[in-house]
Amino acid sequence: MTLASRRALLDLVEIDLPIVQAPMAGVSTPAMAAAVANAGALGSIGVGATDAAGARRMIAAVRERSSRSLNVNVFCHRPARADAAVEAAWIERLRPGFDRFEARPPTALREIYTSFVEDDEMLAALLDARPKVVSFHFGVPSPERVAALRQAGIILLASATSVPEGRLLAAAGVHAVVAQGFEAGGHRGLFDPDAEDDQLGTMALTRLLVRELSVPVIAAGGIMDGAGIAAALRLGASAAQLGTAFVGCVESQADAGYRSALMSEAAHHTVVTRAISGRPARCLANAFTALGAGVSARDVPAYPIAYDAAKALAAAGKSAGDPGYGAHWAGQGAPLARALPAAELVRALAAEMLE
Asked: CA–CA separation, 182 vs 197, rounded Å?
């Protein structure tokens, strides 16, 4: 992308800096998104883990603090296929962990999140609230949903982990594609978590998508400072998306155990596991990732059913003073994390880009 193309994306989204704060459902907050937006970047909230009423409240909370552009992220995963036998076996596999904390595991597991692909109430909430940007993770919704959002004047972003996914997104009508490299923390944006994953890094994927697509590309994965943003722009990206960089911010919902691990030697060790949620995701290595090591994908319940068990075990551990079973999502750049207010971090990133 040329400088003109980068400027076009910034003008389209109405931001001053080529910086996107990743949505990070469960970690990002309205206060974080507003602070980032007021500092000139694109603030984001993730509503994939809440319902339409929750999304409305979060959007309203951002707007109480900022009139700048907001990105609202939704999950477009394939609705879960329940398998009672697999789920029962998974509960038994986790039982020793619950026993350790003198807690009872769930008797059954639930599909705790509704995918946007079938959530009419969430679509109605977004069409009513009309945030500047809506972004998709795990795929893209139906042409009808895309058309409805576009007709409402909403700018659409979506994550791709490969060139074929990027092509599908561009053809579906998104305005820009987020190139999610294998370095990225949190859930891989794979459209099909059971398909072969080429595990492309951010540098290669960004360059390939810039060459292949006619829409702007936003680089994501392992980018933690202004030098990383500048490098992504040199690769042709029109902006960079940072997630782990914002986990340590004071506005983050990350709990004390998560923050402590991120700022410790543990930050040097991340693992991609599907044992926590049922989908591949990069996490700081901990007791849960160790538990999932060597477990076959077919033995893990579908996303987000598996997450129901993981959240229960993490809560049991946390109550007992052991944070080692938490979903401490983090990318490979985690050792570069800083504990700063979000606005201060954005200002630091902007200054570092020019060094």
From this structure: 9
Length of the chain as a residue count: 355
CATH class given for the domain over 1-79+115-252+337-355: alpha beta
Q: Are 157 and 237 in contact (CB under 8 A)?
A: no
Burial class (CB in 10 A: 0-12, 13-18, 19+), 318: middle
* Assigned token pair, 255: 């709990």
Angle at 290 between CA 303 and CA 244, to 5 degrees: 65
355 residues of the chain, pLDDT tens digit each: 457 677 899 999 999 999 999 999 999 999 999 999 999 999 999 999 999 999 999 999 999 999 999 999 999 999 999 999 999 999 999 999 999 999 999 999 999 999 999 999 999 999 999 999 999 999 999 999 999 999 999 999 999 999 999 999 999 999 999 999 999 999 999 999 999 999 999 999 999 999 999 999 999 999 999 999 999 999 999 999 999 999 999 999 999 999 999 999 999 999 999 999 999 999 999 999 999 998 999 999 999 999 999 999 999 999 999 999 999 999 999 999 999 999 999 999 999 999 8
Domain with CATH 3.20.20.70 in the chain: 1-79+115-252+337-355
CB 49 within 8 A of CB 43: no
For residue 75, give the nearest of 119, 45, 115, 113 by alpha carbon: 115
Contact status, residue 169 vs residue 158, Cβ threshold 8 Å: yes
**Residue 195 is encoded by which pair of tokens?**
């398909």
Amino acid letter, residue 268: H
Amino acid at 219: A
pTM score > 0.90 for this model?
yes
Any alpha helices (H) in the chain, and if so which ranges?
3-13, 30-38, 52-65, 84-100, 120-129, 143-151, 163-172, 202-212, 226-234, 244-247, 256-262, 287-292, 305-319, 342-353
